[in-house]
UniProtKB/TrEMBL annotation:
Superkingdom, taxonomy of origin: Eukaryota
Protein name according to UniProt: Polyol/monosaccharide transporter 5
Annotated Major facilitator superfamily (MFS) profile domain residues: 1-277
One Gene Ontology molecular-function label: transmembrane transporter activity
Primary localization class, coarse: membrane
Family, per entry: Belongs to the major facilitator superfamily. Phosphate:H(+) symporter (TC 2.A.1.9) family.
Amino acid sequence: MPESPRWLVLQGRLGDAKKILDKISDSKEEALLRLADIKEAAGILPECNDDVVAVPKRSHGQWRYQGSVWRDLILHPTSTVRHILIAGVGIQFFQQTSGIAAVVLYSPKIFQKAGITSQSHKLLATVVVGFVKIVFILVATFLLDRIGRRPLLQTSVGGMILSLTSLGMALTIIDHSDTKLIWAIALVVASVLAFVAMFSIGMGPITMVYNSEIFPLRLRAQGTSIGVAVNRVMSGTILMTFLSFSKGNHDWWGFLLLHGVATAGWVFFYTLLPETQGKTLGGRLAGGLGGGKTFPP
């Protein structure tokens, strides 16, 4: 894993940054454009093209002054920065509150409630869940730059909503049935696998990718940190409360809640998250609002 080109430029190491940009860009011209954008953000003059240059220090109120970063990000953000922060924190929030941690980590309990009592069968089903998660994450790596962030994310969350619906319905039918329904048990297993697959193809990988793409350079570290903190807090909250919602014969309550959150997330993504595929950092911060467009100025 190479050093970040942006970090190298901030250290004045333009030559090293250009070598890495040449490797990760589609063409030499794209690499030069990216380098020019980074140099401009760092305050390095365009004509400075030596391998090692001096990086100018910024005065009070510029991005090197940490107090101004928090001010521009939290206290007095522009409409663009506010939109970016809401999008970045929102996608982290919905990634965890849509229930992936609960479904994956508590899958043995879900299978047990469905009627799979054999330890070996529960273990096998749990292993298959992990295998499906890995396979579809690999699929996502091939689709992310071909399809785009928005379509893949909306498809992913839509599939999660349908999977949660079928999972909750199947568990409810099993709870109210006096006989062992093989088709309902199969539906539970299929719903769990479908949920994990749909999460892994979009919501899972896109969350961190999107956060790394939307924040301007001077706000990126703090903005991403806020998003990750929200992600971890919500993950812990879901894990500590999910079993309470699904105790006894009320499994549908827990999945109804997750279904509602996932639906709200789909609306949030459709309304507030623009497409970032193929856009430079500067290009993401100009243009229209939503609907697959870029962030407003």
